[in-house]
Amino acid sequence: MLEFRHWELILVLLNLWLGTSASTHWVVTENGKIQPQLDSPFHMRRPYDLLSLLEQEKRAMEIERLYHEMVQRKVAIDEEWAGLESATELENRLYTSDPDCLQAGKPLSDI
């Protein structure tokens, strides 16, 4: 009887150990369930590292700054891209107005 209890305890502990997921940042979902959030800037790869813990706010602020910088760059690229002509429009305009293209009489790709 005592031997069976030991095996039962070992199996329960093994089941708990296999079903446990280690995480350092947890969030409450809309359903009220608590789940680990691995893509968080506060998720720590080495939770035992005190310096890493103390600097996580700096890292979060740096991530936020980089995100805003990337958004500004994307807006600038989109504005420039909107102002450019498409390649076919540019090609047609050059063939009809450029003196060298008019003198050749046909596109360079046909020569």
Automatic annotation (TrEMBL):
Keyword hit for Signal: yes
GO CC, any one term: cytoplasm
Signal sequence, start to end: 1-22
Name of the featured protein: Uncharacterized protein
Organism encoding this protein: Homalodisca liturata
Tree of life domain: Eukaryota
UniProt keyword terms in alphabetical order: Signal
InterPro entries in the record: TTC17 (IPR052630)
GO biological process, one term: actin filament polymerization
